[in-house]
Structures are given as structure tokens and as C-alpha cells.
Amino acid sequence: MSDKLIGVYGASGFGKEVMPLVRAQFTELNKEHFVFIDDGQANTDLNGFQVLSYTDFINDSKTDKRVTIAIANSQVREKLVARLNQDSVQHLEIQAANTVILDEVEMGEGSLLCPFTCITSNIKIGKFFHANIYSYVAHDCIIGDYVTFAPGVKCNGNIHIEDHAYIGTGAVIKQGAPDKPLVIGKGAVVGMGAVVTKSVPAGVTVVGNPARILEKK
């Protein structure tokens, strides 16, 4: 009998997509070894899996606990990582079976790569990166910690994306140059469908084609 308890933190729509990817990495385990963790939906079932509060997850008698965080908000993700670290819970790296990763790719802990993700060559990616379905990262990119790609993000070559940036569904980031990479600043948000043709300052939101800073009203 295995002593593993595998948790998907977040019983949302994204969590439902992530659970099958997690199960595919632990085919030796029965269904009862997988749970969702969500204080707001605790003591319910989701797609036939128990939803536990965080406290109940930690207090479960199984001692080998491992978690992936299926929450797009990077600030929340960082807080949950600190919580899991405090309780010595192991972080999972999750990759869909059809993920493509080529040469010289360095990736930090806790990554979550959904189906049809492509990470090409000579790339450095930080901790707890999320790449949703049909996203790619092309050659010679550097991506910071807690960066989130929504579905269908096209991140071309020689791009630097700083910590906590969020890239919206279908966004396209124009290729930079080896001596002048295009930079998406820390905490910046690239809106859905935006076409980014120049560097984006930290903390701003850009939208449109070509992408422009969304002014606060």
C-alpha cells in the first residue's frame, strides 16, 4: 500500500485540467491517492476526487505528500509555496506527455506544462512557471519566477520575462535580438491577444495590436 498523497492545490476549472496530468505521472497509484486542496470547497467531491482543506491534507495519515499548484495568480502561488515549504511538502514538476523540450533548457522547481507546450533550446526558466495549453517558448529566452502563460502564448526568441509577469491568452511577443532582448518587466500583464513589439515596463498592463499601455481611468 503506497504512502503517497498527491494534491492538486486549487479546485477550479484549471485544477480539473491539471488532475489528469498529475495522475498520468503516477500511474501506479489508485484514485484514492489523489485529492484536490481547496479551503473554499472542502468536504466536497470534484470529478470523483475528494476536496480537502489544507489542514486536512496536512493531517492525513499518509506521510509522503506531494503537491502541484493549479492557480494562475502568481502572488497566491508564491504564498502557497511558502506554506507548503513550511510543512515540508514536496513540490511536483508536471509535464503533459506531449510536451516538447529541446536542448539546453534549465527549469526551476514546481513547473506546470500543459498539453501541447513547446520549450525549445537554450532557455532558462525560474520557479513555479505555468504554461497553459498550446504555449511555446522559443530559443534564448530567460523567464523569471512565478511567470504565468495563459493558453496559446507565443513567446519568440531572445525575450526576457521577469518575475510574476502574466501573459494572456493568445498573446504574441515579438522576437528580440541577442544583444537587445525584448523585456517584459516584473509583474507586468500582457492582455489577451496582444501583440507585443517592444519592451514592457514593470507593473503595467498592455493591450492591443501593437500592444500599448492601458491607462488607468
UniProtKB/TrEMBL annotation:
GO terms of molecular function: transferase activity
Keywords recorded for this protein, A-Z: Transferase
InterPro entries associated with the record: AcTrfase_PglD-like (IPR020019), Hexapep (IPR001451), PglD_N (IPR041561), Trans_hexapeptide_repeat (IPR050179), Trimer_LpxA-like_sf (IPR011004)
Active-site residues (renumbered): 139 (proton acceptor)
Domain PglD N-terminal as annotated: residue spans: 6-84
Site (Increases basicity of active site His): 140
Sequence similarity: Belongs to the transferase hexapeptide repeat family.
The protein, known as: Acetyltransferase
